[in-house]
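Q: What does the assembled structure look like for these inputs?
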Amino acid sequence: MSSISLTRHLIEAQRQGQLTPDLQLLLEVVARACKRISVAVGKGALGGVLGEAGQGDSINVQGEAQKKLDVISNDILLEANAWGGHLAACASEEMEHSQPIPDGFPRGNYLLVFDPLDGSSNIDINASVGTIFSVLRCPDGVTAAGDADFLQPGHTQVAAGYCLYGPSTMLVLTIGHGTHAFTLDREQGSFVLTKADLRIPQETREFAVNMSNQRHWEPPMQAYVDDLLAGKDGPRGKDFNMRWVAAMVGDVHRILTRGGIFIYPWDGKDPGKPGKLRLMYEANPMAMLVEQAGGAATTGRARILDLQPTSLHERVPVFLGSKDEVEAATRYHLQHDGAHA
Ligand code: AHG
Ligand code: MN
Ligand code: MN
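A:
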């Protein structure tokens, strides 16, 4: 059978009433932008794209140093999405506020929010990075969309996905009817469906967490990981392996492929921060992809997709992956809260 391109996959989904022509256009535009980012990432030192943006003094709204590729990827996504007429506004990790579609272009009914380059600390070491995106509906009657219009719970997302720039470039996408993986055919220049309907194994023996923060975790997180590390002889009765890509896209991709649990918990290093990862363009889209593949995603206490966002760059603790394992980790937190209520 001939291969199924992203375009064909989306057209067939449209015939089944799963998405509108505007949403199809939006997803194709995002995929095209990701191809351009993939080319830029792939050039590495030859493209002059490594290192810090500006004179090394460019700081984004998160207070984090911007890399050249953070800025390049953000510009590619903004430019690609400006003229199609499918969007009302864009928001990004790299911009303090959302940006309405520029004057002179028609405005559409969707909102796009993205992490243009996830795992930026991997850029200069030639390791995997990615792009994460989430699509929301622009609320009815809004003619000039602003930050407040983006603050919708994750279960209202109409689409979510990421593009992984690894040894191969892969787009993983959901429009609420399963999670599907496409691989970029570099000769043809098109994304080809390589795994329909990904399913995350319900159980796992693999966890992903930055262990260097261990001493800053709260007690139920400490207890949970102590029990994982105790292995066969501990209360969990099995040995666990550990992996950490340092790019959420890479860790989530491994979990969608072979199971596991990814954790970025709250920690006390900077007690004002409720977590490291951002709800709108990291936790929510990944939670939708994972749930659509039969997994689970919580803050350790509550379902991520049910959270009511309060600001564009809000941070949350994240526990996601194999259902049984996420439920186990969540139980440690809820039982601890119950015992200390
Ligand atoms: P970003 O590069 O978009 O700021 O995101 C980096 C995030 C996430 O991708 C990854 O899981 C995590 O930061 C890595 O954190 P550590 O530096 O603690 O390993
Ligand atoms: Mn990120
Ligand atoms: Mn980023």
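The pocket of manganese (II) ion (ligand 2) is lined by residues 115, 118, 248, 282 (CB under 6 Å).
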